[in-house]
Structure formats: C-alpha cells, structure tokens
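for the writeup, i need someone to sanity check this before i put it in the appendix. the sequnce is what the collaborator sent (i think, or maybe the updated version? ugh). structure was predicted straight from it, no edits. if anything looks off just tell me and ill rerun, i have time this weekend
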Amino acid sequence: MGAGESLLLPGGWIHAVSTPADSLVIGGNFLHSFNLVQQVRVHQLEQRAGVAARFQYPFFSAVHWYVLDWYLQRLDRLDRGHAAGAEAAAAPTWPPWCAKLWPAEADALPALYDYLHGQLADAARQLVRDPHTPLELPFSLVDAHQRLTRLGAWLARRAAAAATTALQTNEVTTNGATC
C-alpha cells in the first residue's frame, strides 16, 4: 500500500499489520447489516478463544440490541405498508433503501435472533446467580425479552409464508409422476 491509500477487509478475514517505517496508520472496525452472520461468528470465536476485551469490538452485544430495535421499527413499518398497500411502506421520512428489507438482511435476522437469545439467556442465568450484579444489556430483562419475542414472531411469519408459497408454486412429484 502507498501513502493515502485505504484498504477495507471483509469481516472475519484474518490479517496483520506491519509498518516497517514510521507511519501514521488509522485502523478500525465497523459493523453493518449485510454481514451480521459473519460478525456474530467472529465475536463468538473471540469469546471462545478468550481474546482480551480491549482487542474486541467495543459494546458488541449492546450495539446488536440497538440493531434489533432498528429492525423492529423497519419490520413494523413494512408490515403496516403491506397491509395498507405498497405506497404506505415507503414513507417520505425514511430513506428509500429503508422501504424494503434486502434479502441479505432478512437472511441474517435468524442469526441476530440466535445471538441475542443467547445473550438474554446468559443475562437471566447471571441474574439468578447474583441478583445484585448489573446486567450487560441496554434494556431491562423484560424489555429485551419482549423485543426478541417480536423478532421471533416475525421470523415465524416469514417462515410460514415461505412454506406456503413453496407449496403453492412447486409441483410435488412421487416416483416420477406429478401429483
């Protein structure tokens, strides 16, 4: 790399940095909703490997609870839009890219659910062990559970709709004969 150049690495790529000459290097990590699955995997790997907290993404769990809130707002708006017609889904106060849920986002939501469900279960176990220990959740245990339940309900509706569509559009064959 040369002076003034930038390099973006996909999430989860193992890498090292070497600066053989005096240099000013600015590094950082960022999270985005199109790579939720990989980001969660990397975080879980860091947890299992015992990587020191100072080398991990700061407030990773808390950030993902806020990501859940963001998606719940979008899903509510999209559900209302589907019920009222397509024009209601694209509200003028939202950027156009918020008017739909991209396939990569929708496909990553189960991983977000699983990760946060694990975080919620850990927090509940910790509360049982020591009721005076502060929880590492940005919301109360009850609020976090309610948020997660809403996402779970949306995922269940999505799975049911996909199964219904698959049954309606696919021909079933048995021993080479169409049923």
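Residues 88-92 have pLDDT under 50 and may be disordered. The chain has one domain: 33-169.
thx in advance!!
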